[in-house]
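R.M. (postdoc): so does anyone remember the format we settled on? I'll just put the structure tokens first.
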């Protein structure tokens, strides 16, 4: 699944259509004996007389390079970065928010005993889980892998569970994050104290 990027496609198509149409009209006009448009003659003179080290030439080259890089990024970068694709069912394509995956795993981990602090970060290819407290990371990984298998992702991310020790005396809830690669965006929620109380009840 890829995003349509309709706005970017419409902008590029409109710009190319306007520029190409104007150049084609002027070229046909010159062929039938009419003088070239003033703006095209002026642009040709400027390109012929200005040196490569001119400020406007450098600025134009920089802007063109930035626009070209932006278009290449739109062409090759996968869209819908906040979403993970599910396995097709009955010819229907569906996806789930990465933050939703984090909440599902946090709820599953809340029922396990011995977890004092939980931090989950869901990426497109890797799912990192950090736990602290008297808990076996291997057992947590088995439970979370079972929960992840129930979701039915087309390409499940690699699950990595590690023990984590916060600063001495730190009291805080674990953060469930699903940031976009390269984009710096973070989306998710917070594992509430109620979840921690349920984890404590699981210990009993």
């Amino acid at each position: 699944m890829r995003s349509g990027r309709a706005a970017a496609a419409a902008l590029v198509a409109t710009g190319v259509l306007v520029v190409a149409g104007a150049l084609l009209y002027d070229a046909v006009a010159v062929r039938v004996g009419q003088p070239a448009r003033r703006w095209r003659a002026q642009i040709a003179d400027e390109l012929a007389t200005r040196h490569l080290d001119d400020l406007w030439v450098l600025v134009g080259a920089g802007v063109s390079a930035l626009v070209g890089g932006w278009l290449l990024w739109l062409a090759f970068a996968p869209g819908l970065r906040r979403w993970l694709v599910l396995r097709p069912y009955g010819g229907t394509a569906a996806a789930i928010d990465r933050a939703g995956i984090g909440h599902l795993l946090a709820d599953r981990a809340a029922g396990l005993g011995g977890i004092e602090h939980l931090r989950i970060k869901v990426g497109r290819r890797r799912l990192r889980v950090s736990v602290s407290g008297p808990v076996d990371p291997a057992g947590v990984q088995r439970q979370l892998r079972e929960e992840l298998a129930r979701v039915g992702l087309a390409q499940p991310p690699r699950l990595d569970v590690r023990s984590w020790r916060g600063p001495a005396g730190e009291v805080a809830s674990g953060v469930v994050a699903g940031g976009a690669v390269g984009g710096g965006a973070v989306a998710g929620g917070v594992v509430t104290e109620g979840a921690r109380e349920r984890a404590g009840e699981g210990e009993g």
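R.M.: ...and that's the designed sequence above, right after the tokens. Also worth knowing: Residues 168-204 have pLDDT under 50 and may be disordered. Residues 6-31 form the longest helix (26 residues).
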